[in-house]
Amino acid sequence: MQALDRLFQLRQSLFEYEDALGIRDYSEVEKAILEFIVSEEKTTISKIMKHPYFADVSLSTVNRVVAKLQYDGTISSEQSSEDKRKMNLSFCPS
User: Fold this and answer.
1) Per-residue pLDDT in tens (0 to 9) along the chain, 94 residues
2) 91, 74 in Cβ contact below 8 A?
3) Other Cβ atoms within 10 Å of 34 Cβ, number
4) Which of 2, 34, 60, 84 sits between 20 and 30 A of 71, alpha carbons compared?
5) What is the number of structural domains in the chain?
6) What is the pTM for the complete model shown?
7) How far apart are the C-alpha atoms of 6 and 65, rounded to whole Å?
């Protein structure tokens, strides 16, 4: 039971952080993709798709979330200088 109590405490802390960051209304997948992009600095949709955490998330869902975050101005995309086929995603702090 102590582990479950600790787990709830972590969930409560996460809720408070999300509220402070203004992302409480984001879906779980939106939050996870945003957090991944922030933690990886410049990343790509391919890297998101290859990460085990996103194994059950479809490519269309990732594309939809990335488009929403770009539209909102939360993230930006920039063509890779090494591979012109790739778009690097990065966080846009406000």
Assistant:
1) 799 999 999 999 999 999 999 999 999 999 999 999 999 988 999 999 999 999 999 999 999 999 999 999 999 999 988 888 999 999 998 7
2) yes
3) 22
4) 84
5) 1
6) 0.89
7) 30
